[in-house]
Structures are given as C-alpha cells and as structure tokens.
C-alpha cells in the first residue's frame, strides 16, 4: 500500500457513494411498487388517492367499457365461488383470515364479490376499485421483474468487486499506521452493522408469516434456514485464509443482498406462486443472508482484528461483536417506526432497503479491511488509541440506550410510530465514521516492540492444522458450548414476538429485541476489555463458565412465561450470548494459532447450523405442533412455550458441564502445546 489511506479516501468515498445511490434507486423503485401493494388494500396507494369504500361510483360508471369489464369480472367471480362451495380460497390466512372476512362482509355486496378467485384479495363493489386491482395485478408482475433485475445486478457488481479484491491475505505496511489501524476497526464496524440485520428478524417474523400465508411450522423452517448454512462455514474460513478479508467480505455482502432479495421476491410474488415455491424462496434467501452474515461478514472481520491486535484482541473483537448486537436493535427500530404497515410502506420496502444497504455498505468498507502486517502496526494500544476506542464505545452505548428507550416508550404507548425516530437512529449509527480522520503519531521502531502472546515461541506458534485440532477433545467441548448458547439465544430472540404475544404483551416485541441487543452489546464490550486487562487473574475459560451459567438461568426464567420473567431471562440471555461470542474468537486464536485459524473457526461455527436444525427446525416445531389445539394452525399461551424452554435449560446445563471440563483441561497449557 504505497499511497496513504487518507489520501485515497475521498475518491473511494465518492465511488462508493455513487454505488449506494444507484442501489438505493433500484431498491426504492421496488419499494414504491410494494408500497402500493400494501396500501392498495386500504385504498391509500399513491395514484388512488381515496379509500376504496368511499369512491365516487357515479363518476366511475360514466366509463361504459369499465363498467362492462366489471360486470364480466363479477359474473366470473360468482361462478368461481359457486364451484368452490364458498370455501376459503388460496391466499387467505386460516381462521384469522376467515374472521376478518366475516367482519368486513358488510362492506361488499355479496360473499362472491368479496373474494376474487385465486388471488385471495378483497374485491371492492365498484368498477373503479376493480380496475385498480386489475392494474395492480399487472404492476405486481413488474415488481417481481424489478426485484429479479436488482438481484442479477447485485450478483454482477459483487462478482466484479470480488475479482478485483482477491489477493494477499495480509496488507503491506502503510504510510500512515494510525489511519490503517482505525480504518480497519471502523470499517469492520460498518460490516457488522450489515451483519446484524439478520438478528432483527424476530421483530418482523409475524409480518413475514402473514405475507407468506404460512404457519408456525413455516416460520420455524425459515428461522432454522437462517443459520443452517453455517454447516459450510469452513468455506468462509478458507476464503479468509487464502484470499484475505476484502474478497471474503465482498462475497458476503453479495450473498447477503441476494438472500434478502429472494425473500423479497417471495413476498411480492405471494399471489403468483404456490406455497411450496414461496417457502422455498424465503428459506433459501434466509439461508444465504444468515450464512453470509455469520461466516463471511462477522467472522471474517473479527478474525482479521484478532490477528491484527494481539495485545488488544478481545477488546477490539468485543467492540465489533457489540456493534453486531446493537445493529439488531437498530434494524428492529427501523422496521417498527419507519417501515411497518400501516404507517410505513411495509415489509417489501424494508427488505429492499436492507438489501441495498448490505451491498453498498460492504463494498464501501473495503477501503479499510486488511490484516495488519507484523511490526509497528500491531503494537499495543497507547493512550490515544484507548481514547479513540472509548469514543467508539460511547457512540455505540448511546445508540443502544436510544434503541431500548424508544422501544420501551413505544411498548408503553407513550410514543407512536414515527419515522423521525428511525432517522435519528441512523444518524447515531453513522457517528463512528468521524474517527476516520485519525492522524499519524510517533511509532516505536519494530525492534522495540514486544507484542504480548499466549503462544509459546518457536515454529509451533504458527499454529496447528484443522485436521489436528478436530481430533482433540477441547475442540468438541467448545463446539458443544456454542451449540447450547447459540441455540438458546436464537430461539429466544426469534420467538420473542410470539412469546410476548402469548404472555399478553404483544406490543413489547420491539422492546424485547432491543433489550436483548443492549445487554448483548454491553456484555461484549465489558468482557472483551476485562478479559484482556485481567487475563492474569481471570482466564478466558473462566469467562466461558460464567457465560454458560447465565444461559441456564436465562432459559429457566423464560419458561416461567410471565412478562417480568421473560424480560429478565432475555436480559441474561443477551449477556450470555454476547459474552460468549466475544471470548470465543480470541480463545480459538490462542488455542490453535493462526496457521488455519479461518478453517478452524469456521468449523466451530458449524455448531450453529446443528443448533438451527435440531433446535429450531426439529425440537421447537414438534413441541409447538403438539401444543396446537385441534382445528387451529398455531398455538398460544404458556403450554405452547414452557416445555421448549425447559428443554433448552437442560441443554445449556450440558453446556455448563462442558465449560467446566474445558476450564480444567486448559488450566496449565493450551491444546497447541499438547498437540504439537
């Protein structure tokens, strides 16, 4: 890197800004189309300008051809309804949809006129409104095409940038070491903001369920698919080891964008696709978004920083993991206050926005991503560096408390959904970019540096291979702990809306997600800093034991199924979830070295896929299905969720035993010493 990063930054910013604007325009056009989709059923879509139940029928009747078209449609609808014996049509939502239909029946002439055969949409009793619906059917097809074109464009752009960014995993020494270090940290935080979007799905899963017309089993399938791709996380680690963080993040941003677009296509084409096709698209999209967020975005930037800051690896990784958690709360806030219908454009617009941000932001971040070279760039943080990290943490904690505060007052009915609240959150999320003006400071000569390391000197300090690591017991003890903590955390976070609905507090779902994000963020920061500073007193293995104990208590509290217990359990689960994923990265780095760090870390992430499959796809749906009353499509109440979280309590009890065993085994030596 012969040119200082600060000199080329303006040109990079201009190029990336142009790309983001282009992506936003494409996504915005699709969002506008889908805004009409969600609002048309209420008659408030731009271009309609009136409520469909209060249109001027006399003015519409002046168009003779339109009236004849409406009469023809009316006759066809009557015949279709007669053939179905007035049963429910495709596109409804079970008992809930039937109740809504009965409630709205007085607004229409007959039950046959109220439903359009095959579309599952309300058919207004006026020719003008009918013409709008017919126009939308054609317009809906164009929306699907627009989203598909956006997906193809994202693939092409991502492939081009991936090709250009593939190269050495380690950067050359830069002219401005301070700028290199802080561009790496800040841009890694930008990547984490994108990766955190996948953890906010718990806030909008009910809207996705309604949009797809699916049941609890279907939502559980999509939730499991979100992290099932982690089974192949070693491929992401391989990309990191061989191609470097730039190429891996580019690939991750492209796949994340494509994943959200597939979910969006399933939503916008809900009336045009069969249920299996819709579910397949949504599940595939969730898998791509989840895989890329975990294996190619979050994991990659954390490994790059762990290798680049040997004296402060837990503190930096802890900050990045905190950004990931806080991002989930911010995305949930944006959904509730900016996009959620009826005050916002709805789910399709939200998905389009996330997709455009995922592609633009990850490419924007490439200017700072690298593995810092050995030497002055990797020296321990000095006072100025600690001040900068403290500033980043202050910005992050401010955003976290803002998320929780807004969600709390909204759940109490004090605040109404207001888009300005979302825009303030975005502004707070952009504050870390102000640190990109960090200037060079006097550096110690490389020969005077004595970087701290927990690895023994000599050839073995490069680390062990994956084939060697996987044969050791320690690898599987960590794997089991991650299986338990991750499975419990995802089950709690993704089901919060439904759990709180059953506990009689449906409006508190945003608060629950934000609380989980806040406690997860704070624990990541605190444990990261403390585990570095007091590593001679409390080992990282002691932290893992404490984390497992918190997870056991959290799952038991949620199983009580009262509002207070659920909130306290969510708080403890956030602490456990956050602290574990801060400690695990430096633990694996120090246990096995850097030789095949990416592949070993990726193999550890495979436990998340196992947890998603066994817990989210198999265990929980089976329990929910058995608790569903006859004749209903979903379960509600204490009996639906208590048993599932008692079982999760037991699973985390096994994880606690594994943590204690791992702590005992590594009290005097690391696996790399024993396996060398």
Automatic annotation (TrEMBL):
**Annotated InterPro entries:** MFS_trans_sf, NFD4_C, Nodulin-like
Region (Disordered) location: 80-99
Give the UniProt keywords, A-Z: Membrane, Transmembrane, Transmembrane helix
User: Which membrane topology describes this protein?
Assistant: Multi-pass membrane protein
Which Pfam families does the entry link to?
A: NFD4_C, Nodulin-like
**For this UniProt entry, which residues form the secretion signal?**
none
Q: Does the keyword Transmembrane apply?
A: yes
Q: Which residues form the NFD4 C-terminal domain?
A: 471-667
Q: Which stretches make up the Nodulin-like domain?
A: 181-407
| Protein's cellular compartments | Membrane
Q: Which GO terms describe its cellular component?
A: membrane
Q: Which residues cross the membrane?
A: 12-32, 147-170, 182-201, 221-240, 247-268, 288-309, 316-338, 350-369, 389-410, 416-436, 464-488, 508-529, 541-560, 566-588, 600-621, 641-662
Tell me if Transmembrane is a UniProt keyword of this record.
Answer: yes
Gene3D superfamilies named among the record's database cross-references: MFS general substrate transporter like domains
Q: Where does the source fall among the domains of life?
A: Eukaryota
> What is the predominant subcellular site recorded for this chain?
membrane
Q: What is this protein called?
A: Major facilitator superfamily (MFS) profile domain-containing protein
């Amino acid at each position: 890197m012969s040119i200082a990063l600060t000199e080329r930054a303006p040109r990079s910013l201009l190029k990336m800004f142009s790309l983001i604007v282009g992506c936003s325009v494409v996504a915005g056009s699709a969002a506008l189309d889908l805004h009409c989709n969600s609002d048309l059923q209420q008659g408030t879509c731009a271009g309609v300008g009136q409520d469909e139940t209060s249109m001027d029928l006399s003015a519409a009747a002046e168009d003779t051809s339109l009236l004849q078209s409406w009469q023809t449609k009316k006759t066809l609808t009557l015949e279709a309804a007669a053939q179905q014996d007035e049963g429910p049509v495709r596109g409804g939502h079970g008992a809930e949809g039937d109740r809504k239909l009965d409630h709205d029946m007085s607004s229409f002439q007959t039950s046959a006129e109220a439903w359009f055969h095959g579309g599952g949409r309300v058919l207004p009793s006026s020719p003008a409104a009918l013409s709008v619906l017919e126009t939308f059917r054609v317009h809906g097809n164009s929306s699907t095409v627009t989203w598909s074109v956006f997906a193809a464009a994202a693939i092409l752009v991502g492939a081009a940038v991936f090709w250009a960014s593939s190269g050495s995993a380690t950067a050359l020494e830069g002219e401005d070491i301070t700028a290199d270090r802080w561009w790496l940290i800040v841009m890694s935080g930008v990547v984490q903001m994108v990766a955190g979007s996948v953890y906010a799905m718990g806030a909008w899963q009910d809207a996705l369920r309604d949009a797809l017309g699916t049941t609890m089993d279907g939502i559980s399938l999509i939730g499991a698919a979100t992290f099932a791709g982690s089974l192949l996380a070693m491929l992401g680690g391989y990309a990191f080891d061989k191609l470097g963080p730039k190429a891996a993040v580019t690939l991750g941003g492209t796949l994340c964008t494509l994943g959200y677009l597939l979910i969006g296509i399933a939503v916008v084409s809900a009336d045009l696709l069969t249920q299996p096709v819709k579910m397949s698209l949504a599940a595939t999209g969730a898998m791509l978004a989840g895989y890329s967020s975990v294996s190619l975005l979050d994991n990659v930037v954390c490994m790059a920083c762990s290798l680049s800051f040997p004296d402060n690896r837990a503190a930096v990784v802890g900050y990045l993991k905190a950004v990931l958690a806080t991002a989930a709360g911010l995305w949930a806030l944006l959904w509730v206050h900016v996009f959620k219908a009826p005050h916002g454009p709805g789910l399709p617009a939200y998905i389009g926005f996330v997709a455009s941000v995922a592609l633009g932001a990850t490419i924007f971040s490439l200017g700072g991503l690298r593995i810092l070279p050995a030497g002055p760039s990797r020296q321990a943080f000095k006072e100025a560096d600690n001040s900068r990290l403290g500033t980043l943490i202050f910005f992050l904690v401010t955003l976290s408390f803002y998320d929780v505060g807004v969600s709390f007052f909204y759940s109490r009915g004090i605040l109404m959904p207001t888009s300005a609240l979302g825009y303030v959150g975005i502004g707070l999320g952009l504050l870390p970019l102000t640190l990109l003006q960090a200037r060079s400071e006097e550096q110690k000569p490389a020969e005077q540096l004595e970087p701290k390391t927990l690895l023994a000197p000599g050839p073995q300090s490069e680390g062990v291979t994956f084939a060697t690591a996987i044969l050791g017991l320690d690898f599987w003890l960590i794997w089991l702990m991650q299986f338990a903590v991750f499975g419990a955390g995802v089950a709690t976070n993704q089901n919060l809306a439904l759990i709180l609905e059953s506990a009689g507090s449906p409006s508190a779902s945003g608060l629950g997600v934000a609380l989980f994000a806040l406690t997860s963020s704070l624990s990541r920061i605190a444990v990261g800093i403390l585990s570095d500073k007091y590593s001679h007193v409390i080992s990282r293995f002691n932290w893992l034991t404490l984390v497992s104990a918190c997870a056991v208590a959290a799952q038991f509290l949620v199983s009580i199924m009262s509002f207070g217990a659920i909130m306290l359990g969510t708080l403890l689960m956030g602490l456990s979830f956050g602290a574990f994923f801060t400690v695990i990265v430096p633990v694996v780095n120090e246990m096995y070295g850097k030789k095949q760090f990416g592949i070993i870390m990726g193999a550890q992430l495979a436990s998340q896929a196992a947890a998603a499959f066994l817990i989210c796809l198999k265990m929980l749906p089976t329990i929910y299905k058995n608790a569903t009353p006859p004749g209903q499509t979903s379960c509600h109440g204490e009996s639906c969720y208590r048993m599932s979280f008692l079982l999760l309590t037991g699973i985390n009890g096994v994880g606690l035993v594994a943590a204690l065993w791992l702590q005992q085994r590594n009290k005097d030596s690391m696996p790399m010493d024993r396996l060398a």
